[in-house]
Request: fold
Amino acid sequence: MKNLLVVLFVFPLSLFAQEGFSLTEKVKSVLGFTVPTLEAEQLSKMGKVVIFDARERVEFEVSHLPNAKYLGDKDFTLKSVGSVSKTDTIVVYCTVGYRSEKIAEKLQKAGYKNVYNLFGGIFSWKNGGGKVVNSVGTETERVHAYNKAWGIFLLKGEKVY
Reply:
């Protein structure tokens, strides 16, 4: 049964790529749009903003957006947000936007007023020419692609699994 579940998860994502579905179309199919979204280009033009990475630590250490703070998703607690004001502009991202939407919902429920989800996550950021940095702050082409099924949507950069 476990092998069957893997096949069912990987096969439909592979079909999206084969049928010409884009990252945008795939992301639209998985998000609930319960949190306002921002496009990567919009984020790149914003001034003061707090950027949180809602991926797992291993993904963050491969690369992350410059100035992003690790937040995680499985081990997320409101304490992780630290001293960020409830009125600060916050952008949360993950691989494509699904996990970050869930974390952004929790932030909204906790009273944070200006919370956004990066539509398409680090994939949209990198595909659009955005820079990423590794765990020591050096620019890198490496991006953790979550798994090979989702990795088909990362068009720029070196995929790491």
Summary: Confidence is low (pLDDT under 50) at residues 1-18.
